[in-house]
Amino acid sequence: MRFRLTPRETSFYDMFAASADNIVTGSKLLMELLGADSSGRAEIAERMRAAEHAGDDATHAIFHQLNSSFITPFDREDIYNLASSLDDIMDFMEEAVDLVVLYNVEELPKGVEQQIEVLARAAELTAEAMPNLRTMDNLTEYWIEVNRLENQADQIHRKLLAMLFNGKYEAIEVLKLKQIVDVLEEAADAFEHVANTVETIAVKES
Fold first, then answer.
1. Known SUPFAM superfamilies for this protein (predicted)?
2. Which of 54, 137, 149, 199 would you label with 165, given CA atoms 20 to 30 Å apart?
């Protein structure tokens, strides 16, 4: 790690950790969605919306700190990219839940639970990794595993699309379900963006 002669603003680490913890909350709400009935889903959507708002607040706090800090722990662009990608994850998860409720989807296609399980695991890994930004220790396995999970999510997504277009579903139902599984795939992509940003930061700091 590079030796620094100037002090660094350390509150960023706590804010990134809080943002990642909130994503774990969002992933747990996604898991709840799988076993919920229509009335239960509406309540889960409300809690997810609250979590998404909390994520927005966390992101704005990071941006405010970034704009008011003379010294930052690492490059400003990387701080911005990391905060934005964490925010994207919550946005996509909230959108997926909202679409399920708005479209009044009675039954999610088999395979969506695998998508959500991948997201939940990526959320756990991300929350575990954020505190390690302080020392840049034990991060390599994190970004390798998240990239592996994103590849797994790609495979699940392709299988879901193949199933949706196999003629079993009505055209309007295909459109609804495809939008939901696509948004969940975007969440997996956003986890990979976070991991790639962390890798970039670690390489610069080494």
1. PhoU-like (SSF109755)
2. 149
Q: How far apart (Å, rounded) are the C-alpha atoms in residues 8 and 19?
A: 20
Domain ranges of the chain: 8-203
Residues whose CB is less than 8 angstroms from the CB of residue 26 and which lie 6 or more positions away in sequence, other chains included? 48, 51, 52, 55, 89, 90, 93, 94, 123
Residues 125-177 have pLDDT tens digits of: 999 999 999 999 989 999 999 999 999 999 999 999 999 999 888 999 999 99
Cβ atoms of residues 26 and 52 within 8 Å: yes
73 phi/psi in degrees, rounded to 5:
-65, -25
Give the number of other CB atoms < 10 A from CB of residue 23: 29
Distance in angstroms (rounded) separating the CA atoms of residues 187 and 153: 10
Task: Quote the CA–CA distance of 191 and 197 in Å, as a whole number.
Answer: 10
Report the CATH superfamily, name and number, of domain 8-203. Phosphate transport system protein phou homolog 2; domain 2 (1.20.58.220)
Q: Cα separation of 146 and 144, whole Å?
A: 6
